Known about the structure:
With 221 residues, the protein is of the alpha+beta class. The chain contains ten helices and two strands; from the N terminus they run βαααααβααααα.
Amino acid sequence: MAELIRAKEPFRFSTRLHLSELTGMRAATLGQLLELIKVVPGASIYHHTHRFLQQHQYLSPEPPNDFAFWVGGILGENELAERLASIDTIQYSSIRELREKIVATIEEYLEGNAMAKLKFSRSEEEFHFIKSVSFILPTNYQAYDLKEFAEVLKKITIDSIYFHVFESRLRLEKKTNDFSYWVETSLGDGKLANEIAKLDPYTYTLENLRKTLIRIIEKRI
């Protein structure tokens, strides 16, 4: 059993509420989609790459990419849809980097498929850009050591787990998730921090991610 180290600073758990808001921007062609992806707010890129993950996490650990879904299902460009769907979100530490990858993927495809720009969707099937607006709220939970941390993980909502694992890293451009950062900087446990950081959260439902985190931490206690 590892000695329980008291943290320099407690981990203070937060949670989130989010609203989906229409931007008023919409695309009927692949060219229009590309140009708008370049300029829409980062909160819109985040929404369309994390919408399913946020809304239907209990159903599937593989959130579909809205851009890929529309390109394949509406425009019939299945090859590009596959390329967009295969973008590994976990590799990117900021919305800017993720946006650049999506843009580069579409531009590369259009270089060899210029006619794809001429395909139009029906008016009722246009791509409507939506942005995710988040409100971060503190909870009453905090932890000073791994045992307390594991106990709180069993109680908090999946919205809290989502915020500390996904949103804080990508939207706030942190290098790692909040849990790994705290374990390394406040507890000095680089090995555990790295083990948590290496998890690919996009391959789990949030409840399974919770169970996995608890199992890893309790094994360390």
